[in-house]
Amino acid sequence: MLRKIFSFFFNRITLVLCGLVLLSLLVWFVGPLVYIKPYQPLESEAVRGWIIAALFGIWFLRLFIRWWRAKEMNARLLGQLARIGASDASTPEAGPGKEEVAELEKRFKEAVDVLGKTRFGQAEQGWFGRLSRRYVYQLPWYLIIGSPGSGKTTALVNSGLDFPLAAQFGKASIRGVGGTRNCDWWFTDQAVLLDTAGRYTTQESDAAQDSAAWSGFLNLLRRFRGRQPINGVLVTLSVQELLSGGDAERERLARLIGLRLAELCEGLSIKFPVYVLVTKTDLLAGFNEFFGNMTREERAQVWGFTNPYVEGQAQEDPGVQFRKEFDGLADQINRLLPQRLLAEPDLARRGQIYGLPQQFVGLRDVVQQTLSTIFASSRFKEKPLFRGVYFTSGTQEGMPFDRVLSALSRRFSVSPPANLAGEGRAGKSYFIETLLKGVIFNEAGLTGRNAKKERQLRLLQAAGFFALAAGLAGATIAWTISHGNNQKYLDEVAAKVPTLKQAVEESRDADPENMVALLPLLNHAESLATSQRYTGDSPPLSWRYGLLQVPKVQTAADATYMRLLEDAWLPRLARHLRNSLQQASTANPEASYEALKVYLMLYDPERFNPRVVKAWMLNEWESTLPPALVQSGMLDQLAHHLDRLMEDRALVSPIPIDQPLVDEVRQRLAQLSPAQRAYSRLKQLLTTGTALPPDFTLVRAAGPEAPQVFTRRSGKPLTQGISGLFTYDGYYGVFSHELPKVTALLAQEETWVLGKAQGQRSVANEVMTGQLALEVKRLYLMEYAKVWEDFLADVRPVQMASLDQAGEQARLYSSANSSLEQFIRAVAKETTLGQKPGAGGSSTSSWLGEKINRIKEEQEQLSRLTGKRVNVGGLAATSSNLEADLVDFRFREYRRLAASNGSGPAPITASLQVLNEAAAVISSARQQISAGGTVPASLSPALERVRMEAKRVPPPLNTMYEDLASSTSALVGRDVRATVGSNLNATIGTFCRRAIGGRYPFTKGSSSDVTSDDFASLFSPGGMMDEFFRNTLQPMVDISATPWRFRQGVDGTPVGGSAALASFQRAATIRDVYFRAGGKVPSIRMDIKPLEMDASISQMVLDIDGEVLRYQHGPQIPKSMTWPGTRGTGQVRLQLTGGGAENTGLVTEGPWAVHRFFDKAQILPGSTPERFVAAFDIGGRKLRFEVTTGSVLNPFRLKAMEEFACPGNL
């Protein structure tokens, strides 16, 4: 009893449980006292409960994992055994019959199944006993090796061990579990004994097969028991093989056993104890007679010796150790000999007893020699641990060996006694049971472990410890970081509190009706728990790890914020509603009605509708707040706080209701027509609480190319358009559908908004007759037309920045199924309300079809609601022309364009054809201008046709057509100026400036002359100026005007400027003056006649490049002269003689010598434009010539040449 109590309280499981219980008590009772400023991480009972559950859960999980791993390895091992057993049983060597094979296989499978479920251990009862039992895999494993017939199996069968499976399968069935031919597996409650086949040791029957089987056996051990494949090896040496064989045979056997041990050491990589069992000692003569009268307990004792074990100390040679210990065993037999002789009455048996010591001593030398050979150190990489030598006897069969008598018989040539010929003996086991249970099994822990596996495990353990340390360090760091973050967060929140308190105090002095004034306070209170230290809705992971304070602070901040909303903002909301109701204009009954309804909701929780309140308040704020505040986002802030105030509850005003004001407004509203009020209410309901069809937008109507074609004058995006309420589907699928319901709902609503009597009088009868619905419909259609007119006026074409874009726009406008055509057809459909769905070939959308199918059901529900049959059909008949009068007529031009007359395309097709033609011309113009050419003559007519077409189409087409024509014209002028100007500057301007810049005659007084060739290249017919003008500019210039000017484009602007054009006009004049004969060389023809000459001059000679005029005060005869002359000297000479004076004169040279000559004279006008007088004063002597040129344009005083400037850009 005490033993059971002791085992219970000091059981490992009990101790662990007690430790967990104590730790749980510490966590539960001491945990709340742990304080990590400013947190108490274990304050919550839930946290402590989870920690305690985690402690027990980890422990149970560890037990489960150990149990599962052992069970898994056990199952894998038995599965391997099953495969081996099944293979062996299916191909028996002994050749049993088929029935025996089948029965053996069946019993083998049953044994494996039982082994998979069986756990071994002591016979201890109870829960702890069951927990301490182990699977086969967990028991110590011992390997028995020896030569065939060495008594391995016999020793085990008669060992007295407990075989748990024997009761289920019978003792004979235990053998063969795991193989009958290769290895016997003996399952005891303390260990597993692997009785290997003797041929594994000797490998003499089939060396290759036996060696492979042995290697496979070692692999099996390594696979399933990697850390400690075996706990020891039992080596059996029978007396028979020790005494009967010669020295060579014994040495061969010893070497084979030593080789197997070496293979075990090397293959299993462990150091294991080796127990040497000298079996069949009963074959020593006198053994049975000496020990036959022993009791079972005496026969169970150990006969042999066990070496003392000191870890780390080297062992002596096993042979030497054996010799020392053997003498003690022999002395012990000699001490027992007198007693046994006295106790034995039979003389023959007494003789056998007397001879046993000599027989036993005869084993000393052979066993010593065998041990020395087996454990020769040179064989072992890891030397096994030699534990001892033990003499055993499993059963007493066979003929005993009497080496003494045999030696005498051989010496004296006599026969051995007859009793040596195999006297029958009873089978008993000697010296086995205690050896196994008390010595070998108790030393299961001496076996070393697989070094490689241990290194792996140590690495795993080190990794585990490192992971644990890293986890602990990481947790410490994480807690430190989290603590720091949360502390800074609390400091940040604490810093906001004084500001919030100050804002609260200041709000007490604010206007009690100003809701906007409290916005800073409310924003500050709502954001009290927020932090700039993190983004998103929740703090990052570095704030958590059990220390997060944000939720607690957020809860407290939310409570403060909600208290401010209720105590400070809600009263202002109620006062604002009352003031709005007071200030509502009598001219705006809808506003008064809605304000009254919202005001009453604050005093009737059952009728409170947060959606209606929010919609009214947003509209009120938007209309009363300054636009700057609305655009700054203040409206969104107000809406947000209102949503928070109305979360999951009905608002109740803290201010008493102003009943006189309510009565006054009701009285005023009762005198007004409800049509406008009903329509306003209808729009509100339909836009906020009804699924409307998609909005009409340019993107939806004109297709994906709409952004390339359209834009909005207001700057609104193309995705924003007309509400789905004001579309064809909206009219027939929503408005017409909801109108009867809403008017009936208004009748019900007015019973509490306006009071029951007023509501019945103003609405109910009109609902029944349909008059109210008719008026509401009229208002809707009027707004429908207004919305569409405003939208169409807001649509404009995309501005064109280049001629390429203009051409692309024209192509987009006129392409097949273009965005423009789609838009016109869509507008025509949406503005043709007189054509009902499905009538006249009109297509009905699936959305609208579903709505129409539900109208009849809704009408029936409406009739049940009002208690009377609603005359919806009469309403339709009465209002059948409203759509055509109010909408369709205004937008008839769109239907005209989109509708086909049946025999040809719609007019929009012909209209777009004009744009298509213009697109081709624009493309051609773009190519010509890019190539440096002129504008094609077909461009202006094509653009003019576009402008004419613009007058025949409605907006926004007219604007788009007009913009295309004018923009294209302006862009053409811009591109022409850029292209032609660039070519002009490159081809003429640069050369012109180099040829005439700073040269005479274009620069008076210059000593450098313009060469005749350069002058001709610029100004001659077909020259640079003339050719450029004729090829490029002439189609764009009106030369009939003076001065010349560029023709105006469709947009009313000229292509180029007047400065560049003036250069070409002057160049034409110069061409006409100097190249009158059409030549390529400039020339001047003139008649020169002397008019006067001083009397002191006797003769005057004028030589102009070889043409000579002589004058001697005779007749005044004119002389025709041409420059340049025939001589080609490029010289003009005037020589004066007479009066004895020296000859005097004047000489000029160069291509412009004649111009320089006349520059020396005073030019006086003549009687006609082509005549002038040149007066010279040379050395005080005067003379005058009359010069008549071939043109009225005087080449020597040509204004076009004096004012000429080289052209640059247009």
UniProtKB/TrEMBL annotation:
Which ranges carry the Type VI secretion system IcmF C-terminal domain? 1086-1191
**Residue ranges crossing the lipid bilayer per the database entry:** 12-35, 47-65, 459-481
**Which InterPro entries does the annotation name?**
IcmF-rel (IPR009612), IcmF_C (IPR010623), P-loop_NTPase (IPR027417), T6SS_TssM-like (IPR053156), TssM1-like (IPR017731), TssM1_N (IPR025743)
Source organism, top-level taxon: Bacteria
Give the UniProt keywords, A-Z. Membrane, Transmembrane, Transmembrane helix
Q: Where is the IcmF-related domain?
A: 519-832
Q: Which residues form the Type VI secretion system component TssM1 N-terminal domain?
A: 208-467
What SUPFAM superfamilies does the record point to?
A: P-loop containing nucleoside triphosphate hydrolases
Please report the name of this protein according to its UniProt entry: Type VI secretion protein IcmF
Lineage here is: Bacteria, Pseudomonadati, Pseudomonadota, Betaproteobacteria, Burkholderiales
